[in-house]
Queue: 4 jobs
Job 1
Amino acid sequence: MLRYLANGRIRWKNGMRCNTRTNWEFYAVIDGRCGVMLRDGQRPVLQEHMFWVFAPGCAHAWVDDGHHTYHRLSLHFSSVPFPLDELVQQNGGWLARPLAAADITRLLAIAGDLEQHFCAPVIASPLHFQRGLMELALLLLEGHRRAAEPMALTDVASFRVERALTWYTEHLGRNPSVKEVAEVVHVSPSHLRRLFAEVRQASPKELFRRVRLEKAQDLLGRTNLTLDEIARRCGYTTASHFCRDYKAVHRFTPSTWRRRLIDRFTRPLPAGIVPVREFSARPGERRLKA
């Protein structure tokens, strides 16, 4: 689900401190120069026509020359598809690539479609968000050496892992055990763990947890369900169990995330003010003059 969109020229008059985001951030410099700072005090190289993606929890800040504006496109999504998620995590939480003129044209077309549905959503808007996310992921991975590597595993192994994840997602409310999922794809639990390690470099438990939290994040953002109901739908025994799991990953509670999301719409920022960090833990960083 698309959580945030900003498309236009900007200049950070007061600078920015490194901070984590709660969503995946795609960031492109369309025109002008900008750099990314991975720790406070760092002096990054300002670059033109660049495209980045950052995972939640990877602290960073955007830097300009302090005198000139630049055109940036910033898009936040609650999750990204495989294999982009794993390639980003393996690279330390972020990836980047330069943009050619054709790439920029493509990016602006994607942004135009997303902006229309972000500002005036309709029933089909979630499908446009999914399509835009896939196009962004493909654009970012074009030319990436790992993305072009042939699959070293058999089709059967990949099929069983994907089938296991699909079935688990379809029965999320029950929170099926690894043994139950293994029976569905006709392998033993130990063999299923080996398949997950080979195909996705993670255990079934880790990926099942990711599925549950991604579903919970989606429900938090687009429904007014209580935490108890969201926990039940995502296979948690209690809301407190869900909150502990969520906080362990995001470092704040689901109630905090939802409250700040609602605040963004019920108390819009004044004209000329842009949100710097959508759900920053630092209240003073909620606003910064454009």
Job 2
Amino acid sequence: MTDGFPGAGLTPVRRAELVTADMDQIADLVRQLYLQHTASFRCPDPARVEGRAQSATVAGLTAGVLGYDGFTYSLTSGPTDSAMAFLATKGGGAVTSGGEELAMASGRAYLYPTERPAACHQLHGDWLALRVSWDAVVDLAEEQTGLPGDALRFEAMGPVSADAERFLAGTAEFLCGQLVTARPGGISPLLAAAWTRVVAGALLHTFPNTAMTAYYLRGPSRVPAATVRAAAEFIQAHADQPVTGAQIAAAAGVDAHGLQHAFRREHGTTLDSYLRRVRLERAHQELTAADPAGGTTVAAVATRWGWAGPARFTDAYRERFGVLPDDTLCR
């Protein structure tokens, strides 16, 4: 695995790439990137074996593209400390765990079991993979629903619906494109944190879990307006850092679920949207104060304040300020 060469203030992207006919090398890389397991292979013709793997890891988030030809890859594993989803783009197989068996085919997604042993039998094919820390998923579920962290469980490996599966597929394709195909040397810490939440949210949205039925929990506690103001002040003071909803709530002395509801009441928006709005204001201030002859670019400012690229930043900027960011910079 190699580190990228990020610019100043960027979080490095660690890469792993492998093309090999050695099946054990492929299994070793999967162990390094995704999960510890015992592997076995069936290979009718060793001359036809090819394994391909590309991955990018940043701040606890891994996106990868895997491919196998000429052999069947079977594995068994125990519980993991991460949440992982795989999307078959070609080929298929089956995964079993705790009495549940899920057939995999092209276009289908599955969640690898986190809390119990599993066995996976993959035929030749290609896969997109997403891996994120379990803590990131737990924190987001608690923030969104109030579900205590130790109560979160995923209850099945398959998606809740075809629409949810398409949502997960779109997320995997986007992030593999941004991190694996585009090969950035580094990305903004703000963007790394945002993409981690995107993956955690996609898993919670796509696969059956106890946060989906958290309606039975007591509602959020009443959060005074003064506490909301304290949270807003914390956001203003830390907008250049990859703060989470849990950190903002802790600074304000309330739980994240209650603060989310209070923000909607006081500001008509979510914590994430408010934080993004503040960062857009900071980008506007930076562009207004910048000397274009000094080397400042819209792309650099967009990256610094957490946008994936100039196009998305330009759309948000024009909607908010009524002008293009280039026009602000060149005034």
Job 3
Amino acid sequence: MTFANPEILYFLIIIPILIIWYIRKQKQRNVDIKVSNIEGFSLSNKSIKPRLIHILFVLRIIAFALIIVALARPQSKTSGKNVKTEGIDIIIAQDISTSMESKDFSPNRLEASKATAQKFIDNRPDDRIGIVVFAAQSFTQCPLTLDHFMLKELLKSVKTRIVDDGTAIGLGLSTAIARIKNSSAKSKVIILLTDGVNNNNEYLSPLDAAELAKELGIRVYTIGVGSEGEFKEPVATPFGTAYQTIRYEIDEQLLKEIAMMTNGKYYRAKSKEALDQIYADIDKLEKTIFEDSFSHTRELFFIFALVASILLFAEFLLKFFYFKTIP
């Protein structure tokens, strides 16, 4: 057991001082009287109350000590242990351009992709997984982690229109590479999901990013999400949300080149079943071992405070009911 505020424990020094004070006070209360005959005293009923009266002070002292300990915030810590888990490092690079709102998937492409990704995360408890999102810009939604509860909560919050619209595939891929390149895992994988054509080479072209992934030994699985053709896309109007028909195309050739350069695989995801096939392939990848140290802290102050409260309440009951005196 450790203490968050150990300096408060110095107040425990007061307790022996109080005990000495109480003993001296009791001695001063005892006086000698001279009587000619003690026969009357021997006939009186002897009560145990005078001896038990000291229990009030004992209860108060113990409660005082427990309060000091509670204020010092005792804690129970479990740390220094390692959890060995076998897995690989995976970054999911998710396209969040407005075209992901298309309704050819139910309820739309983005939500369907998120639902499938959540199922994937649940099926791989031993893998460190992270999330990168991209449109015209890219950022890390969640770094590599074994905390899949936090990962899924952050995945739920992924949505469109949080950055400028566009499809910067090269930027999304390079951001994912930056997040996974220093991994100690033998198998490093990026799953790149997009439904469009790269329209932003301002930072790094997709093929340049793929070349970088190849040099770093990162395997990239590319997924073309959705069906080509005309689909309804929501647009804001002065009268509310309306849907306009827009034609989408997926640059399958580019996605195939990225996968081929990095020893990955290209998939055309016209359904969730196609995404499931990706997960089956990833299961076949070589596994490595990670050791994650952890520390859990449990606050114990409330236990000491509760016991102190019970003791003080017991003292109150004894003092005003059992040891009650008439003036």
Job 4
Amino acid sequence: MHAISRIRAFRLLFGLLLLTLAPALCLGADVEGSKDSPLLKRYEGSFIVKYSMSEFDSTVIPLGPIAREDGSYKFSASRKEEGRTTRLLYLIPEGRSSLEILRNYEGELKGLGYEILFSGSGEELGPHDSFAETLYEQDRHYPLHGGQKTKKQQFLSARLARPAEGDVYVTVFTLENHFWGAETKLEKGRTYARVDIVETRPLEARMVVVTSEEMAKGIEETGKIALYGIFFDTDKTDIKSESVPALEEIAKLMKASPDLRVLVVGHTDSTGDREYNMGLSRRRAESVVKYLQEKFQIPSSRMIPAGVGMLAPVATNRTEEGRAKNRRVELVEF
């Protein structure tokens, strides 16, 4: 690979590690406003250079390496978890390898009762830098052909079962940086650890249930209505019990308007794989149609399930509030 290509590749690699995190003001001390998660301590002597915390966000948890499918890279196995999310990037003391740091985190997690779900290093994770690109949601894929720099990447995902409070998921990605550039602001020759911690819990439901009359008015005026009162567990299609009021209002709408036919369209935010989200949103729409058929005898000929995944956002996917608005079910008249 030419020198210019190598420089560009490493700038992109480190950029995607830092993409969603606030910038550090200086090297040598924790970035202002940052702190460790109370659930997992740092490696001794390291400090925080990037940090963010959200009360509710979604994170992909890899459970297997990357595979190439239909021309794109995808995790061979993964799940998406939601809840309080802390993301940290640590600068590790000099002289410590990425493997040594990962083994320390692995031992600490096991000692706390975590189950290691998946771990790997270098090319075990996937070809080139595809694992890091996919995990940190880089939209494009670029070839980076092996070499000592890419083989220093290490990863693990882990889970702590907490039946009463909600499970905790942790991902740790470590690497040794052999490139410096103004864009990355990372020190050459140093090891870094990216740690993401998700404390799962359901989203506090604050959306008011849309009445059948409001649904009818919205469909008459715009041809569709967005509903936020239908809930599913993360990565599942089973309808949660708190969805019943919204489903009852849909049934009232359909019975009050016997000539009305609708597409039941599932939508997701942009977190995770595009094709997976397309399938998940369709399966959830199918669950809604099946529920209305079985519980309220609404004919299937009047309700067509469809899923568009992340393709039709109504708000930005860069914020927690925007992603919440994009996760919805719409009734579209046809």
